[in-house]
From TrEMBL:
It comes from Fischerella sp. ATCC 43239. The keyword NADP applies. Transmembrane segments: none annotated. Residues 145-332 form the 2,4-diaminopentanoate dehydrogenase C-terminal domain. This is Uncharacterized protein. Pfam families: DAP_DH_C, DapB_N.
Length: 336
């Protein structure tokens, strides 16, 4: 049986959206709409500003014109790559749902928002069911901090602790991410503005997803932040400025989850502006019987993030209506 043609709207045409547009075209997906609030991109051909660097005949519209885009596009998928929190992407998810269009987002909180934004998630769940469509979150965490760890767990007799450590260059993700990591602040300002931050860090949702997937009830959960500085000046392309010696170039964020069964999940993220000799890293260790460590050398984090989402599209379409987190879907797989 031939799968229905995927007709996609991309909402957010920044760095990640530009990669996604290329991956969609490579997979034979028809791009029928593009939305972005950056005035420098509005009105331009989505293909020309994407990693494809060629015209597709689909022009970028401002979010103020989103309803018109959905009305004309006859899309069955909307891909949202704008912000991180449910409150910030609610309007785009709501617009998709009201038009009966399945939506998938890179927003970290959408990966598992049931505990942190229950009211918004339940409203979207109800709306999606009313309009017979599915909403979900995916990305790097879906594969590498979720399902891959679950597969490793399936080959382990006893798990005492799960520890994931990733490092990535935040300079390719825009000025809002750099600001979230405190780039450019003094160490003292970081301690005042970031260290006591109570909004859950993205790893918070990832740990909650993993607990739900493995059937582990959460007893306690905490997060801690430490500034990262450098001994020489570093240029930030996202902020378009130099970060002076001693100023913050990023941070180490650690989310630790203690479960009722005694299993500890620790997720460490080191996000910073790179020096020329630094690379992305990924390491996951399951401590127990046996202890297993999986290391990926120089992971292409941005590309893996986008590929993980695109490879989820058919699962999104096949899922039941509602807000369905991917712990309730089949494991991700490669899509030809």
């Amino acid at each position: 049986m031939t799968e229905p043609k995927i007709r996609a709207i991309v909402w957010g045409c920044g760095h990640m959206g530009q990669i996604i547009i290329k991956y969609l075209k490579d997979k034979g997906v028809e791009l029928v709409g593009a939305i972005d609030r950056n005035v420098s991109r509005v009105g331009k051909d989505a293909g020309e500003i994407s990693a494809l660097k060629r015209s597709l005949g689909t022009f970028i519209h401002h979010p103020d014109e989103a309803k018109q885009v959905f009305h004309k596009a006859n899309a069955n998928v909307c891909i949202i790559s704008t912000r991180s929190l449910m409150i910030d992407i609610y309007d785009s998810l709501e617009t998709s749902a009201r038009h009966g269009v399945n939506a998938i987002t890179l927003a970290e909180e959408a990966f598992y928002p049931w505990n942190t934004s229950p009211d918004l998630t339940q409203k979207l769940d109800k709306l999606a069911k009313e309009h017979n469509c599915t909403l979900t979150g995916s990305g790097f965490q879906d594969v590498f901090l979720g399902n891959l760890i679950s597969i490793l767990a399936a080959g382990t007799h006893r798990i005492d602790r799960i520890q994931a450590i990733i490092q990535y260059n935040i300079d390719g993700y825009g000025s809002s991410v750099a600001a979230q990591y405190g780039v450019g602040l003094s160490v003292e300002a970081f301690k005042q503005q970031i260290s006591g931050y109570t909004e859950p860090f993205p790893s918070w949702y990832m740990n909650e997803w993993l607990c739900a997937h493995l059937g582990l009830a959460i007893r306690t959960q905490k997060q801690e932040f430490w500034p990262i500085t450098n001994i020489k000046t570093i240029h930030s392309t996202s902020l378009k400025t130099d970060i002076s010696v001693g100023s913050v170039t990023g941070m180490k964020a650690v989310v630790t989850t203690e479960t009722e069964k005694g299993v500890i999940i620790e997720n460490q993220v080191l996000g910073k502006i790179y020096t020329p000799d630094e690379i992305d890293t990924y390491e996951c260790t399951l401590v127990g019987e046996p202890t297993t460590t999986l290391t990926i050398h120089r992971p292409a984090t941005a590309q893996m993030t986008c590929a993980s989402l695109v490879n989820r599209l058919q699962h999104l379409i096949d899922a039941p209506p509602g807000f369905v987190t991917t712990d309730k879907m089949q494991p991700p797989n490669y899509w030809m």
